[in-house]
Design goal:
alpha/beta, 45% helix
Length: 367
């Protein structure tokens, strides 16, 4: 009876040690009350460790951004080798290599109208080492065609860095066509509704949309003939199977220079420096037929803003190179290097909306 204290525990030296150490044979409730004394110490350790880890991660991220680039950059072109997009982009990539002091390796990833290569970059690590040479087709046309497997969002999946070029298309006719100007062509098409055909590399391509826009603006009816490739289209153009076609100067220049096709006009708002005698659809009175294909440089969403700023600055310097400027002019292109990250987003939104109107009005769907 006298051998227990007021809590009911045993007395003596052992009891005193147990009480001090918290390891006595006390009831569960007493142990539970003792635990909170040690718990804050554990939490403090966890918080400290977490803080250190976050600080280390932030330091690594900052170091990565500060040292970018310190290895090779993959420059993805979503079209095949040898085309205008590829040729111009390779010259830019070479100057970028000199500017940044690291290899810029061009990697062609063609297919599905440019969407395969475009999607590849969307899924890449946002570390600044995978760059997309973006273009309007997969960014502003394909999203409007009803493709169910388009696994990227033109605005949410990328950081758009710097504009590169804008290219008007050229309307050409066979050498034997009974019209020599844009005005004569429209008059002939109005007198022969549906009897004049035009070719394109496929439904929903920029060339197809150019034809649809001119039809709607001029009030004429043409018959669209889609091809699986631009080369097949041009073969039929030279043989007279096609009456007219829309395409870019790089593709058409050899045919124009050899007299195999004749230029009727361009889809620009201003005359093309490389074809100063060719009137524009705007001059002909068809402002709604004005259109151009554009290219720019993009990175995966989530890329460090410091890396974006570095690449944007480097691209601006490269595009100011006289050699690049001369190449763009010779290929019928105009520089849009003045469009940085802030200007590109509204530009892409506007282009997408314009293409959507054409696609819906013409009833063009994914093929």
């Amino acid at each position: 009876m006298g051998g227990a204290d007021h809590t009911g525990g045993p007395q003596g030296p052992a009891a005193g040690f147990g009480a001090r150490s918290g390891l006595s044979g006390r009831p569960e409730g007493t142990v539970a009350r003792a635990l909170p004394r040690t718990l804050p110490r554990t939490l403090l350790c966890l918080v400290a460790a977490t803080t250190l880890a976050l600080q280390a991660g932030a330091a690594r991220a900052q170091t990565t951004a500060e040292s970018w680039p310190n290895r090779a950059i993959t420059w993805v072109v979503p079209f095949g080798a040898g085309g205008v997009t590829d040729l111009v982009s390779r010259k830019i990539a070479e100057l970028l290599r000199i500017r940044l002091g690291q290899p810029v390796v061009v990697e062609n990833r063609p297919g599905a109208g440019g969407t395969i290569g475009t999607e590849f970059v969307a899924r890449a690590q946002p570390d600044g080492y995978t760059v997309l040479y973006a273009s309007g087709g997969p960014m502003t046309i394909q999203p409007n065609l009803g493709l169910t497997k388009l696994n990227y969002d033109p605005l949410k999946s990328y950081v758009h860095v710097r504009g590169v070029s804008s290219s008007n298309q050229i309307l050409v006719a066979t050498a034997a066509a009974p019209y020599n100007t844009l005005a004569e062509f429209v008059a002939y098409a109005k007198a022969n509704p549906g009897k004049v055909n035009f070719g394109s590399p496929g439904p929903g391509t920029a060339q197809h949309l150019a034809g649809e826009m001119l039809q709607a603006a001029a009030g004429i009816k043409l018959t669209h003939v889609p091809y699986k490739s631009g080369s097949s289209q041009m073969t039929d153009m030279m043989s007279g199977i096609l009456d007219v076609s829309f395409d870019y100067l790089t593709v058409l220049r050899p045919l124009i220079d050899t007299g195999k096709v004749k230029v009727l006009g361009t889809t620009g708002a201003a005359r093309m420096a490389a074809l100063p005698d060719a009137p524009t659809v705007l001059e002909a009175g068809y402002p709604d037929a004005v259109n151009a294909g554009s290219t720019w440089v993009s990175l995966p969403a989530g890329t460090d803003p410091k890396i974006v700023a570095k690449l944007s600055e480097a691209m601006a310097a490269v595009l100011a190179d006289p050699g690049i400027a001369a190449d763009l002019t010779a290929n019928g292109q105009v520089s849009i290097a003045d469009k940085g990250p802030a200007e590109l987003v509204p530009f892409i939104v506007e282009e997408t909306a314009r293409n959507k109107r054409v696609i819906e009005s013409a009833g063009i769907g994914a093929q």
